[in-house]
Amino acid sequence: MVQQSAAQEACVEALQAAESKQRTTIQELRNVERQIYDLESRYLETANPQGNALKGYEGFLTLSGTSGRRAQIKPEDRLFSMSSVTGGPRGPA
Length: 93
Prior knowledge:
This protein has helices at about 1-45, 80. It is mostly helical. The protein has one domain (about 1-80). The longest helix is centred in the N-terminal third of the chain and has 45 residues, at about 1-45. Belongs to the EAF6 family. It is found in: Nucleus. Pfam families: NuA4 (PF09340).
């Protein structure tokens, strides 16, 4: 009976350790997704509206000048944030 109790206790400790590691991993994932979202936002806001790595550079072929304003970020422009299964369209939770 004592051996079974010790085995159960070992299983409980292993489960608690796994749950703790899962919580840590989830928090790290959220932090990375927030960082990706923030960096993507900064890039999309400051990138040249005539072209960037995500939209292409066809805008440079036209003669229109830039207005100097920050670009409006559309959800479909968020290539990296939207590709995350857990991040979602509004950024990580």
